[in-house]
Amino acid sequence: MKNLRIGIGFDIHRFKKGRKLVLGGVEIPYKFGLDGHSDADVLLHALCDAILGAMARPDIGEHFSDKDPRYKNISSMILLKKVKDIMQKYGFQPVNVDCIVITDEPRINTFRNKIKTNIKKALCLDIDCIGLKAKTTEGVLSFSKKGIAAYCVVLLEKKK
C-alpha cells in the first residue's frame, strides 16, 4: 500500500477591503477580498498543502515564502501548477480531491463548476474525481464574519 498516500490541507485568511476575492482561481464578486501575500486563495492553498503533505514534503509556506517578492500577489493557480510539478518530480499523480470551503458570506455554490474546472485543468484530473462543498458556520465559529477557511483532502498514487 505504499503506492497510495493521503494528505490534508487547511488554510484561513481574514477579509480585507480593497482586494479581490479569489477562490479556486475564480474571482468572486464580493465587498471584501482576502488578506495575504499572494492572491490569498484559501481553497488552493489548502489543496497545495494537502498534496505536499501526502508526499511528506514541507508546506506551501516553505516552498513559496511570503518574504519572497516573487510571490507577491501571485495567482494561486500558478502555485498549484508548481506543486503539481513537485508531485510529478516525486512520481505521484492525484486520484481524487475533496474540498470544503467554510464561509457564511459570500455564497459560492454558483461558482462550483468553474472552480472544479480550474482544479481539473491544473491537476489533469477527471472532474468526477473532484469534490467541492461549501459550508456555513451558522454564525457559531468566531471567524464566521471575519474571513474564509478551507480544508482539502487528496489521495495520491505513486506512478508505476
Describe the structure.
- This protein is an alpha+beta fold.
- The protein is built from 4 helices and 7 strands.
- The strands form 2 sheets. The protein has a 5-stranded mixed β-sheet with strand order 4-1-7-5-6.
- Helix 4 (112-123) links the parallel strand 5 (92-102) and strand 6 (130-135).
- Helix 1 (42-54) packs parallel to helix 3 and helix 3 packs parallel to helix 4 (112-123).
- The model has no long low-confidence stretch (mean pLDDT 93).
Mind summarizing the main beta sheet?
5 strands, mixed
CATH fold-type name: 60s Ribosomal Protein L30, Chain: A
Q: Strand order, main sheet: write it out.
A: 4-1-7-5-6
Which sequence of SSEs, written as H and E, runs from N to C? Answer: EEEEHHHEHEE
What is the number of E strands?
7
Low-confidence segments, given as residue ranges, are: none
Could you say what the CATH architecture is?
A: 2-Layer Sandwich
- Domain module tally: 1
Q: Mean pLDDT score, rounded? A: 93
Q: State the secondary-structure class.
A: alpha+beta
Q: State the separation between the terminal residues, measured CA to CA.
A: 13 Å
Nearest-angstrom radius of gyration? Answer: 15 Å
Q: Which CATH C-level class is it?
A: Alpha Beta
The name of the CATH superfamily reads 2-C-methyl-D-erythritol 2,4-cyclodiphosphate synthase
Shape: globular
Count of alpha/pi helices? 4
Roughly what percent helix?
A: 25-40%
Proportion of strand residues: 25-35%
